[in-house]
Amino acid sequence: MTEQLTPAQAWHRLQEGNARFVAADSSHPNQDASRRRTLVHNQNPFAVIFGCSDSRLAAEIIFDLGLGDVFVVRTAGQVIDDAVLGSLEYSVSVLGVPLIVILGHDNCGAVTATMDAIDTGNMPTGFLRDLVERITPSVLTARRDGTTEVNGTAVEHVRQTSKRLVDSSRVIADAVEAGSTAVVGVSYRLAEGKVVRVSGFGAL
């Protein structure tokens, strides 16, 4: 079973794994048959990663992790909805995860689509429209602050998502206030493979 970490220790462990990945020195931990067998009846992840669904953003790979290490939730543009909130609250209240990571990235297609919709006035159809509508406040905030390019806007979206998560969930807000959980927003640089912290709530 994974040892219980503090929020700061969990964040440090993720940083160490990402540094190995960036250096092309990944250790690929906890990926063997023995580890698989130990996880049959329980799990004790040390972090939950809520990230974009982009195929270039596989959380366990970029943080050099294995089975049972992290609880992962993904949506296009890391958009929050009720299912996401329920999943994240489960990770905190049932699994006791000490760290929530909001994982965005540069050249995000969902952010780009939202920027295009705002610029042209042409909203997409179907459920893609819902994604665009949920990302729109982040794009408008970025533009109000003078940011008009996609990567800076994607960073602002991570910041806004982190804040929205704490504002929306009493369970998570209480855990952050108690010091048992922290929320950190990070932006992943596709070319470098590096994660950069851009926001945070709680003791890190």
UniProtKB/TrEMBL annotation:
Family statement: Belongs to the beta-class carbonic anhydrase family.
InterPro entries: Carbonic_anhydrase, Carbonic_anhydrase_CS, Carbonic_anhydrase_sf
Chain positions recorded as Zn(2+) binding sites: 52, 54, 105, 108
Superkingdom of this protein's organism: Bacteria
Protein keywords: Lyase, Metal-binding, Zinc
Protein name: carbonic anhydrase
MF GO annotations: carbonate dehydratase activity; zinc ion binding
